[in-house]
Design goal:
CATH architecture of the largest domain: 3-Layer(aba) Sandwich
Number of domains: 2
Radius of gyration: 22 Å
Strand content: 25-35%
Order of helices and strands: HHEEEEEHEHEEEHEEEEHEEEEEH
Strand order of the largest sheet: 1-2-6-3-7-17
Distance between the termini: 38 Å
CATH topology of the largest domain: Aminopeptidase
Helix content: 25-40%
CATH class of the largest domain: Alpha Beta
Shape: elongated
Length: about 350
């Protein structure tokens, strides 16, 4: 399916999903997209991220445009596209290649009307947001001006009033190895970690009237060396969804782990309040986005077709009818933004 960009949003979304662009492997897709947009007459710049990875910005017209932006990396594993009646399935169909297709089709309409518009497609959103950080550096170094940033994530075609933030955490416990027949001769790091994690639900964490409760997910566990050895070490990878300043949550977690485990604070994204427009339904979302990494791109909005509830799942999918309606919605959003 590689080749020039299709004009139909459904075919374009399928074309984007046909590329394996799991985080760190985005270059082939980004190059194909950059070349195709250039061939269609867009002014295209490749924004370096690292090594051979880059973000893509495409512009038309003059002045300070509204920028439509989303990410083209996906979580693993790669799942190829397939259509079932009026549904597109495959990795990224919902999060966020279908969104990118709708943005491109809307931008083509705006450009054909002789109006200014920009599109920004980034990499690394699912991991470190390094594509968004690179785009922010590029804008500040070049003097490019964007009066608003319309970020695309699956919001069920509603404008988000706000998003939770995120904090990555690593929790490590240390023990002493021994023969499992004589556990009294050692200290089990896995047992200590499990007992500590069991107390997470009892922590008093910040709550916000708009964004709701702070939540913590135990995402990955590792530890021990064999089933007949008392485990000498163990580790858990956590992600907290923030509704407040991260320092508030960190203080609670430091106290929770004190004397029991070593806790390390990782990549963090703050919660955000976002702009809205008349005529759109609104919602609050619990996931984090690239928006906090790009404060210089103008007033932030968040909108996208599809549901986050099927993102990252093996049955990820999006309604093609919703994608078609999203083309109209993105065009309307750009024209409504002052």
């Amino acid at each position: 399916m590689n080749g020039p960009l299709p004009d139909d949003v459904a075919t374009l979304a399928e074309w984007l999903v046909s590329f394996d662009s799991t985080s760190g492997r985005e270059t082939v897709l980004m190059a194909a997209l950059a070349d195709s947009l250039t061939a269609r007459g867009w002014r295209v710049t490749r924004i370096p991220v690292d090594a051979d990875r880059f973000a893509v910005i495409a512009t038309s017209g003059d002045g300070s445009p509204v920028t439509l932006s989303t990410h083209l990396d996906t979580v693993p594993p790669y799942i190829p596209p397939r259509r079932e009646q009026d549904v597109l399935r495959g990795r990224g169909s919902c999060d966020a290649k279908g969104i990118a297709a709708a943005m491109i089709c809307a931008s083509e309409r705006i450009r054909s009307a002789g109006e200014s518009v920009a599109m920004l497609f980034v990499v690394g959103e699912e991991t470190t947001h390094d594509g968004a950080h690179a785009a922010e550096r590029w804008l500040n170094s070049t003097g490019f001006r964007s009066r608003a940033l319309v970020n695309g994530e699956p919001t069920q075609s509603k404008l988000a009033l706000g998003t939770k933030g995120a904090m990555r955490l690593t929790v490590r416990t240390e023990g002493e190895a021994a023969h499992s027949a004589y556990p009294q001769l050692g200290r089990s790091a896995t047992k200590a970690l499990v007992e500590l994690l069991a107390g997470l639900d009892s922590l008093e964490l910040p709550h916000d009237d708009l964004l709701g409760a702070t939540t913590i997910n135990i995402g990955k566990l590792a530890g021990g060396v064999a089933d007949n050895v008392v485990a000498p070490s163990a580790e858990a990878r956590l992600m907290a969804r923030l509704v407040s300043d991260g320092d508030e949550v960190w203080r609670v977690l430091e106290q929770w782990a004190r004397g029991k485990a070593h806790i390390q604070r990782g990549i963090e994204v703050p919660p955000m309040r976002l702009a809205t427009l008349p005529g759109f339904n609104t919602d609050v979302v619990a996931f984090a986005t690239d928006i906090p990494a790009m404060p210089s791109w103008g007033t932030p909005y968040l909108f996208g077709p599809g549901s986050i509830h099927v993102a990252h799942r093996d049955d990820e999918h999006v309604s093609l009818d919703e994608l078609r309606l999203a083309v109209d919605a993105y065009e309307r959003i750009v024209r409504l933004i002052p």
